[in-house]
Amino acid sequence: MRRGLDIVMGCVAGGCLLACLTISTGLVWSIARRGWGALSFSFFTEQIALVGASGGILWNLVGTTVLLSTAFLACAPLAVSLALMERVWLRSESMKKALRLGLYTANGLPSIVFGLFGFLVFVQWCGWGKSWLAGGLVLAMSMLPTVTLVVLERMAAIPQRYIAAATGLGLSQSQVAWAVLLKQSWGGLISGSLLGLARAAGETAPIMFTATIFAGVTFPKGVVENPVLTLPYHIFILAQDSFAAGVETKMWGTALVLLGLVFSMSVAALPSRLYLHEESDV
Amino acid sequence: MTRVLSWLLSALAIGAFGFLLCVFLFQSGPVWQSEGTRYITGVSWFYRQDVFGALSLIYGSLAVTAVALLLAGPLGLGAAVFLSEYLPQKARLALKIPLELLAGIPSVVFGLLGIALLRDWVYRTFAKFDPLSGDTLLTAGILLAVMILPTMVSLCDDALRSVSGAQRQAARALGLTRAETIWNIVLPQASRGIASAFLLSVGRALGETVAVFLVIGRQDNNLPHPWYSPAPLLEAGQTLTTKLGGAETNIAFGDPLHWAAIMGLGVLLLVLTAGATCLGTLGRRRHA
Amino acid sequence: MRIQATMKLFLPLFFSVLSLTSISAAPLKINGSTTVNLPVAEAAEILRTEQKMEIQVDTQGGSAGGISMLGDGLVQMGMSSKPVSEDDRSKYPKCDFRPIHIGEDAVALIVSKDVWENGVHTLNKTQLKDIYEGRVKNWKDVGGERAQRIAFFNKEPGRGTWEVFVHWLYGSPKAAPQVNFPEVGGNEETRSKVASTPGALSQLSASWADGKSVFALALVGEDGVPVPPESQNIATHKYPLSRPLFVLTNGEPSGGAKTMVDFLLGERGQALVQKHGYLPLKALHP
Questions:
Q1: For C131-164, b where at least 16 C-beta lie within 10 A, e where not — what string?
Q2: Which of A153, A201, A241, C159 could form a disulfide with C62 if both were Cys (CB 3.0 to 4.6 A apart)?
Q3: What ipTM, to 2 d.p.?
Q4: A260 in contact with B, Cβ within 8 Å
Q5: Domain range holding B182?
Q6: In angstroms, how far apart are the furthest CA atoms of chain A?
Q7: DSSP C106
Q8: What's the average model confidence in pLDDT over B28-36?
Q9: In whole angstroms, what is the distance from residue A228 CA to residue B172 CA?
Q10: Which pLDDT score, from 0 to 100, does residue B121 have?
């Protein structure tokens, strides 16, 4: 009886895992199967033609890259500062706790909220119209908590004796921050950013009101009224408004490219993340 | 210098989030003034007649989240149990990669998959309940379940592995089978962590926009009668996020009351997600 | 010292970048109806290559989005598949809306294949009102041979298609009753949902009713004669849901907007209008 239950338990749990893996690979497969036909060299080097039915997604790729680079540049210094605050400058334990709790909570905020905020503040009040900068800043806000938390985790994993040694050598707090904390945790900044960017790359809700349009722009030349094309919005529009048979393949092809982009970023971040997780928990 | 800089930048970051909160609160002001608590308890939303009752939207959000949790919860927990209790370290790490793949599928692509695979499946499978179409709250819930599955597995896995190995060994040494060890030792000890995994997934599910938008049917004012009736699950509905991401946001801007009603939905969404995430985080941290 | 030198170097650079952002040639921005978008977006592609013009096209919020963004000054040209109403004009008193008629379309009432095969080929105004207000929920009550539930998909608010539809039924969008139906947005979304749902009915641009996956119903007027949304009937406005397609400008079109308008009204533009299934202007005034 007990033996039997033991086996049943293992089977049920294994079945759950198998189901998860099947769903995951099955979905990726069905995207790949539908989108594979669209992929070709020219798909990456041409611009949209015939309202999405022909041509490629060059400027959508460029636009998504512009947004992500902006988000990274705006987010990284803030994330590092916030992490340093928690590690070095904040003295009171309750302040630190409040900061951490705030970060975790902010990490769970829905991206559409950031989109509406960006629409109101950047697009309307600052008068930028739809602009790559607005989109980049909105994405930066949405990924800031994730990046900060990963950097924090990495800083917390630095052995205390490194800091003690540096302080013992007579280094000031700022010097310790630069020489030990930042130097030892820049990998965390990279992997945290990759993680945040992977999520940001696929976001539609925050950028559709702030940064992206369907067609007709190339590389932004200024800030005001300079939107970009992006991969996720392209898919979103085609899903609702494609009009010719050729569009469907192009749409799934775009989805496949986006998936590849997101996946390569999250896999690049994976080793260091897993390593950290395993080490800090055991 | 470093110190000043990090104070300044941190203040900027925190200020931005505080500003976000203020913007939503102040912009939604008019609707609270004009509708009062009816804004939350009101059952109808007709913007042309300036009637703004968000109850059906709150219901929609909670209903799809509940469906997602009911499906993804047991499945994710089971998978996490197998990952952390049955598999050797190397295999665990290897199997986490395909799960990471699932986590990496962008929301809009999930929406496409929902249109292509899930809508017709729901329509055929539940044919005997006679749904009007494949766009239902249930469809959205199932899609969300798949979307939160990776979060669920990975957080549950964390919770399970935070139970110390010594406890497991002690239990096994006392003659308990692996299943008994899991039920009597590991799961009870990890229960707080698991609860917070559920809460954090709730936060994620509540805030999802684009994927839900494409399969939910976007029908206003769908509420159950009586309140526990499951019938609306097989009808089209609307959530806080699909309303925010939809056509009304564009129409509302420029009309103070309508815009306030839209921003009010943002406030409700913020409160719900922040509440779930905050509770989940507190549970997780005290446990770890 | 060094800081000053750096400042001297960077400040002018900084300001020149700033000014660059403000003087770069203003692109022509267009937003609005997804129905009008098809010919306009293709015209934009041609003008971009031939005239080296910068034209941005988007379809956020449908016709209402086009009108409101033109009214707010966010775009220089709107696209609309319904006439600009007095309400629109009073909401944006500062904007001098100039609708430019570029072609003619109709709102078709489309059904899925099984409804068509069930024998429903026509509807009249009363029957549509009954369906819209929820009094009739079965195709059997409006001409179907066998019982079959009506799955009505309503076009979302702000879409020109919806406004034209309720304008015909009720006189104005404000007078339309409060209803709750699943909503659809873009034309492709409408087409694919109707095609894949048994018993489905929705409003859609007539050019999208292909007669293979979705079928356009004929409307029965007071004289009892069914009028299908065919070119002839649309051109003569015999089909009651005929609607003009517009691009809108604030005041007389000028600059890039004028180039676009001239192109759309010219021979090649009109050919694009026809290519996407709409009636060109010359079909209206033979």
A1: bbeeebeebbebbbeeebebbbbbbbbbbbbbbb
A2: C159
A3: 0.91
A4: no
A5: 30-43+52-287
A6: 73
A7: E
A8: 91
A9: 60
A10: 93
pLDDT given for residue A274 in this prediction:
65
Q: Report CA B88 to chain centroid distance, whole Å.
A: 31
Contact B100, A28 (CB under 8 A): no
- What gap in Å lies between CA B141 and CA B150, rounded to an integer? 15
- Residue A185 near residue A158, CB atoms below 8 Å: yes
Q: Are strands C28-32 and C55-58 parallel, antiparallel or unpaired?
A: parallel
CA distances from B144 to A108, A136, B64, B138, C235 (A): 15, 27, 8, 10, 47
Q: Quick one: fold of A39-280?
A: MetI-like fold (1.10.3720)
**Which residue in C24, C38, C58 is closest to A51 by CB distance?**
C38
Ranking B24-38, B73-87, B123-137, C9-23 by mean pLDDT, the lowest is C9-23
CATH value at residue B213: 1.10.3720.10
C186 vs A: CB within 8 A: yes
For residue C184, give every residue at least 6 positions away whose Cβ sits within 8 Å of its Cβ, in sequence order, or none: B218, C153, C154, C155, C156, C190, C193, C202
Q: Å from B221 to nearest chain A CA? A: 22
Judge: A214–C45 Cβ closer than 8 Å, yes or no: no
Put simply, the answer to whether A50 touches C45 (Cβ < 8 Å) is: yes
Q: For residue C16, give the amino acid letter.
A: S
Element containing residue C152 per DSSP (H, E): strand C151-155
Residue type (1 letter), B197: A
Q: Which residues of C touch A222 (CB under 8 A)?
A: 20-22, 24
The tally of domains found in chain B comes to 1
Mean pLDDT of A23-49: 91
Helices of type H across chain A: 2-35, 41-45, 58-84, 93-107, 111-118, 132-156, 160-168, 173-176, 183-201, 205-208, 231-241, 245-281
**Chain centroid to CA A87: how far?**
24
pTM (2 d.p.): 0.89
Domain locations in chain A as residue ranges = 39-280
3-class SS of residue C183: strand
| H/E segment holding residue B44 | none
Domains within chain C, CATH numbers bracketed: 2-103+245-284 (3.40.190.10), 106-235 (3.40.190.10)
